[in-house]
Specification:
heterodimer, A: alpha+beta, 24 helices, disordered N terminus, B: mainly alpha, two-stranded antiparallel sheet, 19 helices, 65% helix
Chain lengths: 691, 553
Amino acid sequence: MSTSVPETAPQRAAAGLLDPQLLLAALPDAVRKLDPRVMVKNPVMFVVEVGSVVTTVAAVADPSVFAWAITGWLWLTAVFANLAEAVAEGRGKAQADTLRRARTESVARRLTDWPAGAAEEEVPGTALRLGDHVVVEAGQTVPGDGDVVEGVASVDESAITGESAPVIRESGGDRSAVTGGTRVLSDRIVVRITSEPGRTFIDRMIALVEGAARQRTPNEIALNILLASLTVVFLVAVVTLQPMAAYAGAPQSTVVLVALVVALIPTTIGALLSAIGIAGMDRLVQRNVLAMSGRAVEAAGDVNTLLLDKTGTITLGNRQAAEFLPAPGVDVGRLADAAQLSSLADETPEGRSIVVLAKTGHGLRARARGELAHAAWVPFTAQTRMSGVDADGRQVRKGAAGSVANWVTGHGGSVGTEVTALVDGISAAGGTPLVVAERDGGGVPRVLGVVHLKDVVKPGMRERFAELRRMGIRTVMITGDNPLTARAIAEEAGVDDFLAEATPEDKMALIKKEQEGGKLVAMTGDGTNDAPALAQADVGVAMNTGTMAAKEAGNMVDLDSNPTKLIEIVEIGKQLLITRGALTTFSIANDVAKYFAIIPAMFAAAHPGLRHLNVMGLHSPTSAITSAIVFNALVIVGLVPLALRGVKYRPTDASSLLARNIGIYGLGGLAVPFVGIKLIDLAVQFVPGLS
Amino acid sequence: MGATPAGWLQAIALVGALALCHRPLGDHIAGLLTSARHLRAEKALYKAVGVDADADQRWPVYLRSVLAFSALSVLFLYGLIRLQTHLLLSLGVPEMEAHQAWNTAVSFTTNTNWQSYSGESAMGHLVQMAGLAVQNFVSAAVGIAVVAALVRGFSRHRTDRVGNFWVDLTRISLRLLLPVSVLFALVLAANGVVQNFHGFEQVTTLSGGQQSIPGGPVASQEAIKLLGTNGGGFYNANSAHPFENPTGFTNLLEVFLLLVIPFALPRTFGRMVGDHRQGHAVVAVMGLFWAASAVLVTFFEHQHSGSALQAAGAAMEGKEQRFGVAASSLFAASTTLTSTGAVNSFHDSFTPFGGGLTVFDMMLGEIAPGGTGSGLYGMLVLAVVAVFVAGLMVGRTPEYLGKKLGGREMKFASLYILTTPTIVLVGTGCAIALPGERAGMLNDGAHGFSEVLYAFTSAANNNGSAFAGITVNTAWYDTALGLAMVFGRFLPVVFVLALAGSLARQRPVPASAGTLPTHGPLFVGLLSAVVLIVVGLTYFPALALGPIAEGLH
């Protein structure tokens, strides 16, 4: 464990910055990784290491400035590759340290015969087993992962989420999960432990961010195969070159041949490949998302269909009052006033939104309840579905259309066709109509008008969905609303499709149907009934606020519990692949310039015509070969920030993305080394023994 | 008419004819590869050999069928050649040595048609007709059968069946190669290509000298020699011989024949995968390389630095006067780009860069347009590599025609692109390192090296043309080049069929705006760049020591 990481190692390190301290800390690790048993896992860099050994032997046997210069830079190439990986891992380790501090040894108060009695015993947290029950009170640390089975408490989860505001955890429902290492701030809860010691959420997090659990992803394996085969081709090309060179009367020294091999094999991408993968996972961690496997991150880039819950993801959590529609002959101000008055006792978010709309739309100050003398408040209940106030002989009511209509007709009034038309119009448009009525001094009630409640689509969502469409991703809104309502919101938000009156089974069926057609599906979920769908989806992001079952079923957990983040996750997945592709292209394109540096250096003596290939005008054969190798090593260091940060991703269609990346990394990869090698040669030619 | 306009007109006529045939021929091949109907003659044949024609094979079975058929072909041909002195129509040719018979048997079975012997003096009519000509048909058919299996890998979903080799082989031979060859054999015969059973005729020339003139069933063999991208000449001089290729018209016809199937197969591909644009992209890349090579070879053959060349106005050494530079260059580029290997002029005598280009054409892996079938499968494997790298750059697991390119697919594609360069470079390296084999070179220096490089490039890529100059009828070269041909043909076939199997198993991924489009100019440019870079990087050092060193003075 790297303990030299500075105390200030940020939970969310700024991405891509090469902290010199982090570099220094990674250096011993980088040297340690030269162990051939480690290196052999990366065929490209293993060839470099073997080459370094060979040139070292050659340099000892036949010392020259050139031989030692090449040898030194070959070793540096191998070290730089390890350094990239070590730096990427170092960032994870810093985070793991923070987490480890949260995993302090805790004492658990195990209930021995729960729920029958309250007998408890003190055991170390590590002794807890699956299915044990423990009690946790204010000020104590939750000893392990579990579900609250009794009580409600506010919990500080900052150790895991970095979010200092406490959250409520209660038994039953979808807010029951507690994580080991978090602290109960108030009240008392009984928790049923759901994880074995050492396999807790925080343990897995530590393993993940440290990269200990890192396995190569399918795509990384495929790329590795391609790189290995290119390495073999170049090895063959160089090994067979020697007899050809001997025939031409220009046999080459071992040092030169090794230099040619290292220059040609795709060292740039070979050196940075694992750093790119680690950094990709890390980028998710920076955004407070934990991916349980690299495979899941890759799958995120491939997603074809996003299933998004309407509430909280596409729309703000609750419906809000959008408009007051007065009945004929009623002033809108009067309606607004009555609506506000009747909503003061309505603590639901919808009720509060009416108070706010009356204030912002009609300049009506929200009155405190105490301002009205002798007022009898009628709070909103699920049974009456109405709220209101009785004051000074005047009764004001507001509520669901049917409930208020019953109240009005029950007292001898009538609703009127115009109001009914308004109500139906709002329903048809997907909104919720609330009717406001009043009754003066026991007279006949009169309907004042209708409040239009509607879902408010989060700002910017329409644009996000348009972006996703350009990326080729279809969005499907999942909602429990009726189809009419769902369609209206779907149109307003600009999603491609919707699933109305959705049950967990419907959701599951939709995922299976999409997968049947070869599509990859991503979704978010938090409830226990989401668990099967989360498990079935290719990318299932569980909310940290959700149940343990959901967190176990998904392959990612969002610590911020922000379902909109699914879109960012997709982008990170894509960015990971793009970075690999871009650096592969760059690496291969680099070879062209290296040939123009090395081939004339090797053979211009035997075939003078080949000096024309020295288009860079390099000073001498030794300076040319040295410059190519120095460039080859330095370009790895130069690209470490890019590998860690990732290639910039723009949501657009595949063609323009490809054209752009080929332009930058393909053509750039052709041109950059010509300039770089020339510049290095300008310096190297003054080194005695190399000119 | 001047030489240059005539050259241009020939090229335009050729391109027009190829374009005209692209669609009907490609559709015809697609039809015969997908049809459920058997001809009566075919049914009889299947019954005789005991093949269940309606049962498709899994890829390992398909592969075993290819290998078994080819192994039997080698054995049969070897036996026939060795025993020909005891058989009919042997014309009294001497018995062929074992190593040369092995080389020849392998050469015709692998569609290489490298000839270390001289046709008129080593082969009787029986071997020519019952041995070599038969292989001209079936070795071409094997290539098309293999690519058919690969294309089915793309077009079929969630199956382990890639087709039935015996049905493919039979249909391609009977419904495609045979009728077209008969037709063009007649056209060639009508235009002066000989077709008889004469042996050597002694004639007295006008000046009173004695000359021995060989006859033979040439026209019938000539058509399939080109149509099947075989290239093995009836006579040693191949298509430079006036009996094989008498006039400018037959010359153009021969170039047409060797290009027509390889350029039609992308249409077959597009049709079978249900998207003609995919075929267009592939044919565009092939056409681009072919056109560039033809133009460049012609250009270099018109560049002349020596005084003799300047007097002649072009590099005429090794070229037939009746064809001229343009038609010779067009033939050279076409034959080396198609794995045909027939020649109407001698590449050894080309200018360094012109001759170097013919080597480079073969190094491309015979994919532009390549041999019958083998050209398309080579190009599709390179497309897989191109799609893989480019697909990453658009941020998705790369997919080609709806099939994901994962570890398994990349393993086979990587092994494919690894195989041929390894054979070429190891073979050349060994030959050049062995003092005894070096002696076979006609020239010394860079040109001598080019001769050896050419020989192994030609053998491993199953081209079969020779740079001449080098003496290859030694036990070492016969054996080594024979091995190069076997490995160069069948290792790629193994990887292609394995790839086909792994593609066919997959469930297709629907295309979306995020999918890399594999048609259109961007992809054509990308695939061309991948072809150039992969080949260029592999062979650059060897080329630098041969043609480039010779050309840059």
